[in-house]
Amino acid sequence: MRERIRLFFCVLLLFCGFSVSGKAGETLKVDCWMEVSSASKTLYVGDSCLVSYQLFSDLPFNKVIYPSEKDLKVKHGTMHLVRRENDGATFRVRRGNKIYYSAVVAQYMVAVDREGKCKLPDLTFQISFYYALPAEDFFSQFMGRQKVQTFSKNLKAKDFFLDVTQKPRRSTTEMMKSGTIV
Fold first, then answer.
1. Does the 28-166 domain belong in CATH 2.60.40?
2. pLDDT tens digits for 3-16?
3. Residues with Cβ < 8 Å from 70, sequence gap 6 or more?
């Protein structure tokens, strides 16, 4: 009986010395996408609207390279970058049976000066992902430094449309009730 226990511990110690999994040169497949949203789908001519680009990924990300200013062209309107998310505010959200990392990576202000349907340009973001490599041996799991591997991927945002309409006219009585000077 003692020999079996001794053999069991020897085999256990032998397996603890082997690498758990993965090689440093392998790249992982990442499940990621970009969602585009705005405060409202309808925009009045001459008004502006804030459009947010939110990244979802099953791996953590640490760097986002934004499209250049020349790519921000909107037909009959303007689009400019308002805010870049650099404070590291990443959240974990559940979609279906899986948990994803999520962050609003950029916000753009869009203004259109003609009525109709406005299509925002297809923006491509370069995102840097990272993941922790498994420890090489049993001792490194507790006392060694954690090794991290990074890789980049280009991610294109889906098409996004805004309906642009004329601002509805108000009657004089409506203006008087609101306190606006006529």
1. yes
2. 877 766 655 555 55
3. none
